[in-house]
Structures are given as C-alpha cells and as structure tokens.
Amino acid sequence: MGSIVETLGNLLHQTAFFNLSGGNYAMIAVACFFLYLAIAKEYEPLLLLPISFGMLLVNIYPPIMEEGGLLWYFFQLDEWSILPSLIFLGVGAMTDFGPLIANPASFLLGAAAQFGIFAAYIGAMLLGFNELAAAAISIIGGADGPTSIYLASKLGQTGLMGPIAVAAYSYMSLVPIIQPPIMRLLTTEKERAIKMEQLRPVSKLEKILFPIIVATVVCLLLPSTAPLVGMLMLGNLFKESGVVRQLTETASNALMYIVVILLGVSVGATTSAEAFLNWDTIKIVGLGLLAFAFGTASGVLFGKLMCKLTHGKVNPLIGSAGVSAVPMAARVSQKVGAETDPTNFLLMHAMGPNVAGVIGTAVAAGVFMAMFGVG
C-alpha cells in the first residue's frame, strides 16, 4: 500500500499544477483570451490561433522551448531568418501589385505610413532601450510580423523577439479596431465620401517587369533587404509570369500555410512567463501601439495633403492602408469609406499603398541594418 501511495504521489507531483508559477497561469489566461479573439472574433485567425496555442504550450510545459525541445527547433528557423523570408515568398505569390503600378503615387502613401517606425525608435531610446533594441522594437509600427522577427534576429535582439513578434502580430490582428477611430478623427465626412477615378489597366509586361526592377533597385541600394524583398518579388514573379503555375500554387498555399504554422507556434512559444512578464514587455507593447497609431495617422495626413494637391481626387482614407497589414488595412479603408457612402469603392485604390507598405517596411528594416553595419 505504501508503494502505491508513493507512486501516486510521484505522479501527482509530476503534473504541471505543482511546477507552474502564478505568472505561468497569467500567461495561460492571456493565451486563452487570444484563442477567443482568433476563433470567436476571427481576428487574423491564421496567425493568432497558432501564436496563442504556442503561448499556451510553453506556459504549461516550459521545457518544450528549451534547447532540444520541439518548439526550440522551430524557433531556430526564425533566428536564421528562414521562416520570415518564406512568408514573404508566399505573400508575393498572393499579391497583385497592379494597383501600385497603376498609381505610383501610392508609394508615397506607403512611405508616409512608415513614419510611425521612426517615431517608435525615438520613443524606445527615450525609455532607455539601446539603439539596436530600439530599432528592433520600432519596426512593429509597420504592422509586419515577419519583418519584425527578421530585424530582431539580424540585430541580435533574440531576447526581445517574443514580445516584439507577439505585439506586431497582435496589432496586425487588431487593425479593424485600432485604425477606424484614428481615420475618422483625422478626416471630414466630405473627405471620406470622395470617390476616386477607376485605375488604368496594367499590362502583363508591366506586372512581369515590376518585381524584377524593384528587387534589383532595392537590393542594390540596401543589400541586406535581399532575403525579404528578394523573396517577395520572386513570389510575385512566379504569379505574374504565368509559366510556373505549380510553383505559384505551392508558394501561396501549401508552403505558406506550413510556414505560418511553424512561425506562429514558435513565436507564441517565446512568451514564457519569465521572458514576457516584465517592464520591458509592457514598454514594447505600448511603443508598438504608439508606432502603429502614428503610422496610421501619418498615412492619413499625407493622404489629406495629396487630396488638396489633386483638388479632391484622392480619398485620404487610403493613406491608412500604407501600413504593411495586407490586405486587412486596405479592407478597413474600404469599410470606413463605405460607412459614409455605401456606393464608394476604395479597396483597389487602398491596395496600392498597402502593398507599398510591405516594401516600405522591409526598406525601413534595411535602413536600420545599414545604420548599424549589419549585413
């Protein structure tokens, strides 16, 4: 009888209930909340669901993220910049750059929305982060999770990668909540009701040349962006060339979804209570929100400037889509515009700044790497 009691006691003490801290339970609650947002509210579920489940696993069984654990191997692919680059390959294969080619001025709106990144960089410096950490944190303002992971890895900020990645992906998921109040605050009803002229047709030759030219120019100027911009444009060239249908389908479907699973779960697994529950994390989350809000505002304000310069031909709402959350930010521009006039169709116009923002965020990361001599 004594041996049975001892065995049962040993089994009981091997359960997680006896090995977890209060912080672990707090993070489990956060994970469950994120799962609720992903499943019940459908806030970017393809990203938020695996991230939140990774968060749940690592706080129930921390060794899963220690060296030799399953998710530790997944995370090495993040640190080696493999998964972020493959994500860009898939994004390129799914993206139509036609609206950007038809209206090159969209590049300016995409660039304007990157001001939030540099505002966050200054804010992070003021809060006591060193230059490398501040640069890694600031890229959250682009609402681009893969670029955030890529830059944090390149700058040697793997200790902050968990909070940075979770903040970036969380704000991507919350685009429909965060952006509309800022957009309404900075625009008038008359501006929101502006109907834009139909975009010109874009030829197949233009669509084929675009990824080749962008990859060449950007990578010549900022070689360190080649893994991101190069893969983005390669994926798009797959799509637009029309001669590698199998590669396009693989990059945009099977490969993309596999990478999303690995990336999401491994990012979520960086949020153990010990790594996540501290003042630096709170600062990072706050700076990320500031950067994202500032980027949205700067895009809208630049849209207002373009509206004036074109005598009312540009709806300022499309400027908010200059952040890199594709295509959700463009959909939000469409939704807010349709609230004022249900017959207004802004989606394709907003896609120009939106895809420009993807390029712009990668370029901003390249600028930081060039500043600090990182190749």
Radius of gyration: 22 Å
Sequence stretches where pLDDT stays below 50 over 5 or more residues: none
Helical fraction = over 70%
How many strands, what sense, and barrel or not for the largest sheet?
A: none
**Oligomer status:** single chain
What do you see in this structure?
The chain is mainly α and 375 residues long. The protein contains 20 helices and no strands. The longest helix is centred in the last third of the chain and has 31 residues, at 279-309. It is globular, with a radius of gyration of 22 Å. It starts with a helix and ends with a helix.
Quick summary:
The chain has 375 residues and is an all-alpha fold.
Descriptors for this entry?
73% helix; single chain; 375 residues; 20 helices; mainly alpha; 0% strand
Question: What's the SSE blueprint?
Answer:
Elements: H1 2-14, H2 22-39, H3 45-60, H4 70-79, H5 82-94, H6 98-102, H7 106-112, H8 115-126, H9 131-138, H10 145-154, H11 161-173, H12 175-186, H13 189-192, H14 204-221, H15 226-241, H16 245-268, H17 273-276, H18 279-309, H19 328-340, H20 347-371
Helix pairs in contact: 2-3, 3-11, 3-16, 4-16, 5-10, 5-15, 5-16, 7-18, 7-20, 8-9, 8-18, 9-10, 10-11, 10-20, 11-18, 12-18, 12-19, 14-15, 15-16, 19-20
